[in-house]
Amino acid sequence: MRSSSEQKNSPSFWLLLLIAWGVPVACGMILLGLHDATPGAVGKSPNTWPEDTRIPLDRTLPTLIVFAHPKCPCLAASIEELNRIAAKTCGKLRIVVMFYRPRSSDDSWTRTANSKRAEAIPGVVAAIDPDGVEARRFGAATSGHVVLFNRDGVRLYFGGITNSRGHAGDNPGGEAVVASTLEGRIAPTFQPVFGCPIFNDSNASDLASAVQNVRDQGTR
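Now predict its structure.
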């Protein structure tokens, strides 16, 4: 019978140890990839500007509305893309970010790093959406959902401006917003939205935060 030291020095021992460590890591990475690539829900988006909305339509510029859950970690990527859109459109686009707030909470609930990043973008107007009334009105169910209307109130684009959850970079949604604003070109008119559910006070954002922690640990 071999001693414990001999067993530890055998190739089979290290192979089994590698398998025991590698399989859970591989499974975790696969699940992480699936989570990142899974789009969120999308409601029915109106073709024209809703008459009962509290948000004013700009009659001189196209209007882009972003609906957001302030505690969603995936939202940081959408805000980064929004910053790029604002820079590329150079004041030719009115941008409004509506932050969801539960009716039972006060406005301080929305004060997060995400809301501060959005407010720091030149020309962006940030507002609070109590109980997600406006989000429902415009068909937004997932944080990061945007809707673009021309100055006549006709919808040009709706959906997301990232390619996956929490990942910024070139994407068809952001390009569509810029092209529609600067060139009047409409293509595409919809892209999937990647983010947390808007109408969730904690669970979805907590899950997304846990996934983000795993992702951050994997990049260290």
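The CA atoms of residues 161 and 173 lie 5 Å apart.
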